[in-house]
Amino acid sequence: MKIESLIKAIHCEKIRISDHADEECHNDGLTFDDVFASVLSGKIIEEYPEDKPYPSCLIYGRNFKNEPIHSVWGYNPEKEAGVLITVYRPDPARWIDFKRRRK
After folding, report:
1. How many Å is the Cα radius of gyration of the chain?
2. Rounded to whole angstroms, what are the CA distances from 87 to 57, 78, 79?
3. Are 55 and 1 in contact (CB under 8 A)?
4. What are the distances in angstroms from CA 66 to CA 20, 35, 44, 89, 102?
5. Cα gap 15→85, rounded to integer Å
6. What is the pLDDT of residue 101?
7. Dihedral pair phi/psi, residue 35, rounded to 5°
8. How many domains does the chain have?
9. Rounded to whole angstroms, how far apart are CA atoms 72 and 16?
10. What is the CATH number of the domain that holds 48?
11. Which residues constitute the domain of residue 89?
12. From the centroid of its chain, how far is CA 47?
């Protein structure tokens, strides 16, 4: 998966947001604009090519306040649409520079 595909989907407003992502956004005090901004400035840090129904990836980026955000996205290539699966504020105790999992 390429982050450019997700960025295009965001710009074209071809996004589906799961109920889980909606709840997590609310629980972490994030807006969807925060999440979208983090993708626009972000990078893929993990890929999950075997996920169903679409391959997915974990993106690390920062919002308008420069706060770190992780979001998991699927991508439907037939519809050129992104699916926001979940989002959260990464715990620094579990991540090195918010990009690599601690062992």
Report:
1. 13
2. 12, 24, 22
3. yes
4. 24, 12, 17, 12, 22
5. 11
6. 86
7. -65, -45
8. 1
9. 12
10. 3.30.2310
11. 3-101
12. 11
89 Ramachandran zone, left/alpha/beta (phi>0; psi -120 to 50): beta
- Beta strand 95-96 with 100-101 is antiparallel
pTM of the model: 0.93
- Residues 51 and 90 sit within 8 Å (Cβ to Cβ): no
Run of H or E residues at 72: strand 68-76
Task: Give me 73's structure tokens.
Answer: 């996205």
Q: What is the three-class DSSP state of 90?
A: coil
Q: Residue 47 forms beta bridges with which residues?
A: 57
pLDDT digits (tens, 9 = 90+) for 38-94: 999 999 999 999 999 989 999 999 999 999 999 999 999 999 999 999 999 999 999
